[in-house]
Design brief:
alpha/beta, Rossmann fold
Length: about 160
Amino acid sequence: MKIAVYPGSFDPVTLGHIDIIKRTATMFDKVIIGVLNNRAKSPLFTAEERVELLKEVTGDIPNAEVQAFKGLLIDFVRQNHANVIVRGLRAITDFEYELQMAQTNRVIAPEIDTIFLTTNLKYSYLSSSIVKEIAEYDGDISAFLHPAAAARVRAKLEEKTKAQG
């Protein structure tokens, strides 16, 4: 069985992420969406909330599975008996960082390959950070997110506003 891991923060999951997940699912027997806790970022959603949302928006992809993970990506890939990491590329700046990570991972785990999928052009500008910023200023995020994700972002920001008083 060919298993791929598509890791990311997914805070929130965008239509660009969903596009990569769907395309990966056509190439592999199983795609595991690995939701990581990135300490360098301050997430809007907890890892558990992101897992729940990803399960909801990928429910129509029968060979997709969602799991949260901590630690090294390579360890997560090995634990899941996968041999491929999938990364999406939007621009040349993504490539430089992703190539460095892929080469580092290859040194640590020579049996695991990384493949890069270029994003669909209609999502090439899209990032979770941009979506969150638009949402924080009450902008319309419906063109960037699955309806369930857009509703959760709005609800989370309202909750956050109420908590701040």
